[in-house]
Design a protein that fits this description.
45% strand, alpha+beta, five-stranded antiparallel β-sheet, 2 domains, single chain, 492 residues, 15-stranded mixed β-sheet
């Protein structure tokens, strides 16, 4: 999960730059986290033959408990000179031979045809272009029309090829101010872009742009980290990076040791926003109830659903949301031959959906036989082939195998209590699976089962869920670092 959050950081920063870029020249940026140089980004815009191609490339390296991970991304959008969408592409390299390439074309009728390639396997689907969504050139033209007069504000939808969705954005033009660009001070206009997605949190990106609408500095607070992109020379952008460990940023302290939470019937958590964090958006569900308190704190009561007995599978219902959770996706390739084979092997002889899901949970716990923090976020197909990874890899394979067996499933991200992780106790960033069985979403945790903990329990706090797509991690990225756990009450 650590790389997925890191990737979301990169994508959101790319959104911030593409929204404020007017140059036909190649622009280079240094990527900084809390002042440490961790990578670079390159922006280019080429206009030819009545079309405009905008490309954003980035490469960033982080460490987690000493394990280094490098994430490389390329996003490209092709539009007419009027900003009408033509095509797009996104490519991610998570290291160790793992990655994905997605290409899309937008038809005259607004139908988007998408082709995703992972490990040589191709998955194709289509969807309707989001109404009013803009890519880089359309955003640039819209911004030029609105201008940089202080006090100007407007709304727009920015389509991200990597997120495969449109991000609602609200732009507010601020005053001109002196800005430090790695020792060079220039006068730039402050532009705040508040980005949000349905049911997710809000993230405010602050850009400082020149009179040509070129972003020379982009600042984004995420997970308690001050993340920046600063325009610089090519030489400095591509220079060696500094060491930066993100592990502590994905950890939330516990007010007290909780001991063996696997035996708890329920646990109540009081979450308090840190100063300036604003309202917390924590999702409610079958396994956790959320209530906003009058003093601004959020009460989260986690009580795991007991596995229903006698539920049939494959799922035969008509609920659209549940049906969607049975279908293959870019990261949960439940139609992959290897994953289908593994699902059949795991569920052979299962009497009902609950038993089948438990068998899949246990199977994945044994099947992923190499725990590694250095693996980038892999899709289910890649995990089935490599048999290694950390919690994210366990979660996507478990979810994909459930779907292959006809059991609706999704990937959940949040934090989970650990008694001892690298000498610390508290809540670390984590990913697990939920399966829809007998009318309830039931928690499954193959990673914890592999570690001998037993699986999903009341020590988990969910922050987001979905198909494992980058957009599903948006709330996770905008929420971590914005709250403290003030009080914990355990019911046994």
């Amino acid at each position: 999960m650590k790389t997925r959050l890191f990737w979301v950081m990169v994508i959101v920063m790319q959104l911030g730059v593409c929204a404020w870029a007017d140059s036909n020249e190649v622009e280079y940026y240094a990527a900084l986290m809390d002042g440490a140089k961790v990578g670079h980004a390159v922006h280019s815009r080429i206009e030819a033959d009545g079309q405009v191609k905008t490309t954003e490339e980035s490469e960033m390296t982080m460490s987690r408990m000493g394990a280094a991970i490098t994430v490389k991304t390329i996003e490209a959008s092709v539009e007419t000179t009027k900003g009408e969408p033509v095509s797009f592409a996104a490519e991610q390299d998570m290291g160790m031979g793992m990655g994905m390439k997605t290409e899309g074309t937008v038809g005259n009728d607004g139908t988007v045809k998408v082709r995703a390639t992972v490990m040589g396997q191709v998955q194709e689907n289509s969807f309707a272009w989001p109404a009013g969504a803009m890519m880089a050139e359309a955003v640039r033209l819209f911004a030029l029309e609105k201008g940089l007069k202080e006090g100007t504000s407007y709304d727009l939808k920015i389509f991200s090829p990597s997120l495969m969705s449109a991000v609602d954005s609200r732009v507010q033009i601020g005053a001109k101010q002196e800005v430090d660009l790695l020792g060079r001070v220039v006068t730039l206009t402050k532009v705040d872009t508040a980005m949000s997605m349905p049911g997710m949190g809000e993230m405010v990106i602050t850009s400082f742009v020149d009179d040509k609408f070129t972003a020379l500095k982009t600042v984004m607070p995420m997970m308690g980290i001050n993340v920046e992109l600063v325009a610089c020379s090519k030489k400095f952008a591509l220079a060696d990076n500094e060491y930066f460990d993100i592990g502590d940023k994905m950890f939330v302290s516990s007010p007290e040791p909780l001991g063996d939470v696997s035996s708890a019937k329920a646990i109540a958590y009081e979450l308090k926003p840190v100063e300036g964090a604003g309202e917390l958006k924590i999702p409610s569900g079958d396994n956790q109830l959320v209530r906003q308190q009058n003093d601004g704190t959020v009460l989260v009561v986690v009580e795991p659903v007991k596995m229903p007995e006698g539920a049939k599978y494959p799922y035969k219902g008509t609920d659209k949301e549940i049906m969607e959770a049975t279908r293959p996706s870019r990261y949960l390739q439940s139609d992959d031959a290897k994953i289908i084979e593994l699902a059949k092997e795991a569920t052979k002889g299962a009497r009902d959906a609950g038993e089948a899901a438990r068998r899949i949970e246990a199977f994945v716990a044994d099947y992923v036989n190499e725990m590694s923090l250095s693996v980038g976020y892999a899709s289910a197909t890649e995990v089935a082939a490599s048999r290694k990874g950390d919690c994210s890899e366990f979660a996507v394979l478990c979810a994909a195998m459930c779907r292959a067996a006809g059991i609706p499933a999704r990937v959940v991200v949040g934090v989970a209590y650990v008694e001892d992780f690298a000498g610390r106790s508290g809540f670390g960033g984590h990913a697990w699976t939920e399966a829809y069985i007998g009318g309830k979403w039931v928690g499954l945790d193959s990673a914890f089962k592999a570690g001998g903990r037993g699986g999903f329990d009341a020590g988990h706090i969910a922050l987001a869920s979905g198909d494992g797509e980058p957009a599903d991690f948006f709330n996770m990225a905008t929420t971590l670092g914005r709250f403290k756990i003030e009080k914990v009450t355990v019911a046994r």
